[in-house]
Amino acid sequence: YLDQTTEVKPLFIQVYNDFKMLHDDFVINFDDDIRDGSIVKIYRNHLEQVLVILLDNAFKYSADRKEISLSASTNSEVLEIAVQDYGLGIAKNDVKRIFNRFYRVDKARSRKRGGNGLGLSIAKRLIEIYHGTLEVESVVGSGTVFRIELPLLQDTEEANDSEEKAKSRSKKKKTEAK
Ligand code: ATP
Predict the structure, then answer these.
(1) Where is the sequence biased in composition, kind Basic residues (predicted)?
(2) HEC string of the chain?
(3) Predicted ipTM > 0.90
């Protein structure tokens, strides 16, 4: 999968629409500032899985304020996605551990909400495999934001890729002709 690429805007909008449908009791602020045609260097299902993990958590660990913000933007080199909630937040000591496998902040509280403590460790590994970063900022009692950064495919890389493909195609033709 590692050399797969994904057009990010349609995926981002699809994930947003899915969650809007599933959580009609929430306000979901949506800010899409992704340049049309932006392509990220990640397999589509992997990016979708990471977004689902972060959004699931945002809904699961929201308190009375049923509001989430989902935003994304691109510059010339990277895509940044932020998933923000205004819920329980995570204490400093726990923030260090939430990406560890099976770590859950408050065992009793979390058990009620279901889960194994695996989601975030999977999300982080997936993003790092594709040379991206996944970071968190949180304030107890006010909420949490997770930020993903992923490298964009540059136009020149695309051009090189298709040049190489064209070359190997013409090589193949020549060998077939022999
Ligand atoms: P699952 O394996 O189903 O994802 P989980 O939600 O417990 O279960 P992780 O997604 O790895 O597992 O999260 C680890 C812990 O980090 C959670 O148990 C929760 O305590 C804390 N956490 C994760 N996201 C948030 C959030 N948005 N706000 C507050 N706490 C969070």
Answers:
(1) 168-178
(2) CCCCCEEHHHHHHHHHHHHHHHCCCCEEEEEEECCCCCEECCCHHHHHHHHHHHHHHHHHCCCCCCEEEEEEEECCCEEEEEEEECCCCCCHHHHCCCCCCCCCCCHHHHHHHCCCCCHHHHHHHHHHHCCCEEEEEEECCCEEEEEEEEEECCHHHHHHHHHHHHHHHHHHHHHHHC
(3) yes
